[in-house]
Specification:
mainly alpha, 19 helices, elongated, 486 residues
Length: 486
């Protein structure tokens, strides 16, 4: 049985898009679920669009996601180099083979003629494509132009009649009319290969068995197949994935920060959760399970589960999956992941961070939401006295003063300042006063945090702040209420 070999072949033209990461993931899962090898290849033939540092971003994103490649630019392998610009010598040779076999030709048309042709075709409502003028040059004409030093490109010579068909694992059998296929450029005037040519040569010479890419390349697949057939090479298994959309009519926008992987990790979504969610964009595992580790995805993945329909990127669904991921993290792992975010809001050292992490973990869907929950710890934020008024809790400014005046001595009496002893002191007080929990606890929460929503309630906040700071804030709140109720 032929070894399963897949590749992820990004162009280093910017940050990793979520669609790129999904392609890498599916290629990885197909390789690993089949006991094969996953390759990384950098396709940098479009030198003008290269972005400095983009290769490092590709490496970092894949490594963070756990998509470790078996062969690639940094670790080598038997079919390298794994960077296209380092493979330049072979492409021209392969193109020359196609010229000799009659499947390609030199095109000497200059930019002016090509532009004139496009204008005429547009005016005639014709699809823009090369008219194959140079395909009919005889040997003497070609020699003359070469002797004169005329610049040329090498174009693929498409059949003019009949059809070309190819099978795709997702979209099934697809057939196109050969008359609609443009004589695409294989080698540019500067000797550089085009993407459409280089990726075919590289996939063959690297032994790629399954080609995983976006459905936008479906229209190019017939041209690729004709190249494989012209060389007499075995055609790989095609897996074209549906697009990832923001809505049914709107693409994900890089400008709006909803397209790049880094946009999400910068917001504190764990990369494992993002990978889990991306796997489900256009793929159904069957059954009810939706939370997967990478290892579990490898065991569950089946190409047959990939849908033809565009996948809608639903941030609420991502939040749900990310929240589940965070809740399943071991406490010490969550604390380590959360600390950089906690430190954005908390500079104090005398805080029980393990206790704080225990409050945050059940309430997070992304770590980026942590700082705004903790802005009361270092300093009490400004707040209005109206916050003490709560219809549900049946509290008013006057009842809040009464509650705080009662809570202060009860808390002063606590000698061993823990969440449990604070809880006991306040609930014993509630029992003695024969009042509802909220009558006392709501004013305490507002007094010590200045916020309606915090991780945990007033008891937990008081413990985190410490006894002296809690009592100081209760005094300040009582004074505030007294002044504003006069």
């Amino acid at each position: 049985m032929k070894e399963v070999r897949t590749r992820f072949a990004p162009s280093p033209t910017g940050y990793m898009h979520v669609g790129n990461l999904r392609t890498a993931l599916y290629a990885y899962l197909i390789a690993k679920s089949g006991g094969g090898r996953f390759l990384l290849r950098i396709e940098d033939t479009d030198q003008q669009r290269l972005v400095e540092g983009a290769v490092d971003v590709i490496y970092a994103t894949l490594r963070d996601a756990g998509l470790h490649w078996d062969e690639g630019p940094d670790i080598g392998g038997p079919v390298g180099p794994y960077v296209q610009s380092e493979r330049m010598g072979m492409y021209k040779d392969y193109a020359e083979q196609l010229i000799e076999s009659g499947h390609a030709y030199r095109c000497f048309c200059d930019k002016e003629r090509l532009e004139e042709l496009r204008v005429l075709q547009k005016a005639s409502n014709q699809a823009p494509m090369y008219d194959a003028k140079c395909a009919n040059l005889n040997a003497d004409e070609i020699r003359g132009k070469l002797s004169a030093g005329e610049s040329y490109v090498i174009r693929q010579k498409m059949p003019r009649e009949g059809t070309t068909s190819f099978a795709d694992e997702v979209y099934g059998m697809i057939t196109v009319e050969n008359a609609t296929l443009d004589d695409q450029v294989l080698i540019k005037a500067d000797g550089m290969p085009t993407y459409n040519f280089a990726n075919v040569v590289d996939d063959h010479t690297m032994g790629i068995s399954h080609v995983v890419r976006g459905s936008e390349y479906l229209s190019s697949a017939p041209k690729y197949n004709l190249l494989y057939e012209a060389f007499g090479w075995e055609i790989p298994v095609y897996v074209h994935c549906p697009p990832v959309m923001k809505t049914s009519t709107e693409k994900l926008s890089k400008r709006n920060g909803d397209a790049y992987c880094r946009d999400f990790t910068d917001k504190g979504y764990p990369i494992g959760a993002l990978l889990n969610y991306i796997a489900l964009l256009g793929w159904s595992p069957g059954g009810e399970t939706e939370i997967f580790t990478l290892e579990e995805l490898t065991g569950a993945f089946d190409i047959a589960g990939i849908s033809k329909s565009p996948a809608i990127f639903d941030t609420q669904k991502l939040d749900h999956i990310s929240g589940e991921w965070i809740r399943r993290m071991p406490p010490e792992e969550f604390l380590a992941a959360a600390m950089p975010w906690i430190r954005r809001a908390v500079s104090r050292e005398d805080v029980d961070f393990a206790f704080l992490a225990g409050l945050l973990q059940p309430r997070c869907h992304a770590l980026g939401g942590i700082p705004e929950q903790l802005d009361f710890i270092d300093a009490l934020p400004k707040y209005e006295a109206e916050l003490f008024v709560n219809k549900k809790m049946k509290t008013t400014a006057q009842t809040a003063i009464e509650a705080l005046n009662a809570a202060k001595p009860a808390l002063e009496a606590v000698t061993d300042w823990t969440a449990q002893t604070i809880h006991t002191a306040l609930f014993d007080l509630i029992a003695r006063l024969e009042v509802k929990n909220g009558w006392l606890l709501w004013p305490v929460r507002i007094a010590v945090t200045g916020k309606q929503f915090t991780p945990g309630g007033g008891v937990e906040a008081a413990y985190l702040l410490g006894k002296a700071e809690t009592l100081r804030r209760i005094d300040a709140a009582t004074d505030k209420l007294g002044r504003e109720s006069c």
